[in-house]
Amino acid sequence: MIDLSGIPKTSSLIDEALKEQLTGIFSRMPEPVVLKAVVDTKQEKDSEMASFLHVISELGEKLSVELYTPAEAAAQAPELDTAYLPVTGFYKNGRYQRIAFHGVPGGKEINSFILAVLNLSGGCRDVPEKVKKSIGKLKKTANIKICVSLSCHHCPSVVTACQQIAILNPGIEAEMIDAALYPELVEKFNISRVPMIITNDHDIHMGSKTIEEIVNLLKY
Question: What is the distance between the alpha carbons of residues 154 and 67, in angstroms, rounded to a whole number?
Fold first, then answer.
């Protein structure tokens, strides 16, 4: 494990005002959440993510962070796809909760990152019971990749919806991917606009969608 003491405890993504706000938010977390990240600290974006995680790890008693090198990933976080680094996985009660972020949650995506922590800790309280029942009935196992741009206004709501579905159904995994960081992925899936939802590395759905619309996509 990478020693956090060797990681700068400053982040351009979090100013003092946001620190104070997040401290209040994280103080109300009902259940602990662990963030496990695989980072290559020789790379700029990985170092940026490590610092971001170090900062937020000290803002709440029920939020903790573990950093691992790519060489440690197979043993310490085998569930995470390390093809696209940095990657951060969300864990609760010692288990991976099928939510991952590839990249750094800057721009609009810092909101979806924080909401992922809160929804995982609190059980997606904002999702209507009718929608929760529909999610629970999904029988299809699916990996969902949500390709985003950090400047996109529509992307965070799609990311959050997919995360909520993953939290509420053990057959679903939701991975946010900052498309700008991975040109090979852009080429592979011909990503021309975002948000783009890719299910099981095969089916592609473009544009903004509600949680109900995403649930319907996963039925077939």
Answer: 30
Q: What is the C-alpha end-to-end distance of the chain, expressed in Å?
A: 41
Q: Which amino acid is at 116?
A: A
Please give the pLDDT value at position 38: 98
C-alpha pair distances (Å), 173 with each of 1, 42, 72, 146: 25, 29, 22, 11
Strand positions, DSSP E, the chain: 33-38, 63-68, 87-92, 95-102, 142-148, 172-178, 196-199, 203-206
SS3 49: helix
Where do we find the tokens 């159904």?
169
Contact 103, 178 (CB under 8 A): yes
Instruction: Name the pLDDT band for 220 (thresholds 50, 70, 90).
Output: confident
The dihedral region occupied by 107, where left means phi > 0, alpha psi between -120 and 50, and beta the remainder, is left
> Tokens for 201?
């590395």
Task: For residues 118 and 59, give the distance between their C-alpha atoms in angstroms, rounded to a whole number.
Answer: 13
The one-letter code for the residue type at 138 is L
Which tokens hold the place of 14? Answer: 């979090």
pLDDT tens readout for residues 195-216: 999 999 999 999 999 999 999 9
The Cα-based distances of 64 to 51, 60, 84, 112, 176 in angstroms read: 13, 8, 22, 18, 20
